[in-house]
Structure formats: structure tokens, C-alpha cells
Amino acid sequence: MQAPLPTRRTVLGGALALAATPAGAALAPSPMARALAWHGALEKAFAVNDGTGLYREYHPTRPGDERYSTEWPFSQAHIALLDLAMMPDAAGRRFSPALAKVRAAQQRYWSKTSTTGVAGHLAKVVPPLGHGDDLYYDDNEWVGLAEVQHHLFRGDAPSLANARAIFALIRSGWSEEKGLKSPGGVVWTQKRDNGDRNTVSNMPAAELGLRLYLLTRERGYLDDALRFYRWTNATLQRPDGLYADHIKRDGTIEGRVWTYNQGVPVGVNVLLWRATRDARYLAEARRIAAASHRWFGADGRLDDQPPPFNAIYFKNLLLLANATHDRRDVEAMRGYADRMWQRRRNDVGLVQFPDRRAELIDTAALVQIEAVLAWREDDWKMLY
């Protein structure tokens, strides 16, 4: 699901008092230390602590807020705990119980059916805790990729089975609507009035298919991944390598450039190179990454992007760095993490932007960024 974009003006202006580190002051000693600090603040502010393992979406709460977060922010808090658990040695092992708890809570969004007749995660918790609401394919794809990451980390059969089940849902989301311009593509959501087919509903689908192919060597996963990949390239990729957001039912292209829509295609091409050993895919990953550097390196564009989009972007760039041993993106990621720590940390330790309440998803994104910067570099190959 698409997060609201803080504008350049609201990011740099406003009267909100943020807890910024003074210029020249020492930062926390390491990415691991900052990951722990962000996570401690997240748990204190957002954990519901009612035995469900679920989180609130906003801090501070207001009358009328839902008791539990929607699925997209929850999934990012889930992934934050997975990334923490994968930090080296004892630092990561301490998060094993919390990871097990959040993985169980993830199933509170799982519905045995959907409008296509296939099970998947709904946007809100299902009965008896909630009413479930609509289903978004991109929300499910992030969980599927997390399940693959967990399987690569732990080697367990259940997480692989969960990823397979989510991919079955994604297959059911391929548009068969007749008369469309650029027919096909995985739709964004099962909402009845939706006709959008997005980079974010197709490229993560390709990434999940490639991960499943590399694990199982079942040809159908590769074939579907290539179908999603080729459709997105033909429909939404610009000549410079960057990707537009989505195409509407009437053929109109929404051309806004988001970080996660550039990062995931980088990762897809790296995985295609791993799957086929065709050097063209690695070259394309480099081309998209270079185009994204030029775009987001201008006019503060990177810092104006939502933190969860940047977490996904940078993780996929680390997947490329693992393949190429080029560290420029690692240093860019560190620089972004430094700026968020210095400029966007409020007085209770959460990520916050002016004129907005603190949101679960933003602090979860910074936990992810700092945690993976604390990983052993060889483990970056497990990222999505």
C-alpha cells in the first residue's frame, strides 16, 4: 500500500520539536546500537501488549483510532524483528522469542479465502479481532519475501510453505480483464473499483517467484517471475531505467518515481542473473541502480521519500552490492541512516516528520536499515 509522501516543504519546515543530535556531536556507536534504540522505542510506543502480539499504527493514540495496525505497517514491524534476529551471534539470538511471537501474530491477518477464492493476508485483522477489510497484493508480497528470508535464515519448512501459499494468491491476481491497454499485470488490490496495475504489485511478485525458483528449481516459478518482470518492463519502465508507479484502467500512467519501485527491479535482475547466469541481467541491475542514484541524489529527493520505501530500496541495493562488491550504496545507506538519527528522531525515540504523528511503519523501517547494516556482508544475499 502506498504511504503518504512528505513534501519537501513539510520535511524541512514546521514547528514540531524533534530531538536532533547537535552538529558535531557523536552518533550512537554502531548500526546495531541504533537498531536496538529504534526498536526499543517502537516496542514501548506501539506494542498493544494484550497477548495478541499486534501493534498500534500511530503514536500518540487518539479517540477513534483502530486498536490494531493495518497489515502493511504490521508486516514491516514483523520484518524489522526478522532483521534484528539475523544480526550476528548473541545480539540476534536475543530476538528469537519476539520473532516467533510476531510471526504468529502475522497470521491474525490471514483469511482462508478472498475474492479470487485463494487465501491471503487482508488489510486488517480478521475475526474475532477485526473485520479483515480488503486484500492488497503488494502487502502479501512483502510477507512472502519475509517468509523466504526466514527460510533462508532458519531452513524451516513452514516458512517455505507460507511463501508458496502467498505466491498462489499472487498468481490469482493476474489481470484477465479484456480491452485493457497493456493487458495483464498483477492488480494492486482486490477492491472492486480498482483497475490499477503497479510496479509494486508486479516486481515484488517477480522477486518472490525467483526466490521460490532458486529454492525449489520448479520451472513454473521462473516462468511466472519472467511474465511479471516483462510486463512491468514493457508497461512501466522508462527509457532511463526508472519505473513509473502504475497504469490505470484507461491506460493513463501515473509517473511518480518512488524509491521502492526502483530498488525491487534491481533485486529482481540480480536474482535473474543468479538463476540464469546471463550477464545481461546483472548489467540491467547496475543500470537501474545508476539511474536511481542520479534521480534521488538530486534536490534532497531521497530524504523526501517515505522511510519504508527507502528501507526496501536500500535492501535491494545491498543484494546488488553482495553480487558486485561495490560499496557505494552501503555508504549512501549509512548516510541516510545518520540523517534520520540526527534529524527525525523525536523525544521518545521514534521517527517523526513535522505535522504528523509518529507512525509504526517509519520507525520499523529504520530498525530494518540499521539492523541489516549490522549484518555480516555475506548475509546480504538473503535480502529481497
UniProtKB/TrEMBL annotation:
One of its GO terms (biological process) is carbohydrate metabolic process. Residues 1-25 form the signal peptide. The keyword Signal applies. Pfam families: Glyco_hydro_76. Keywords: Hydrolase, Signal. The keyword Protein biosynthesis does not apply. One of its GO terms (molecular function) is hydrolase activity. This is Glycosyl hydrolase family 76.
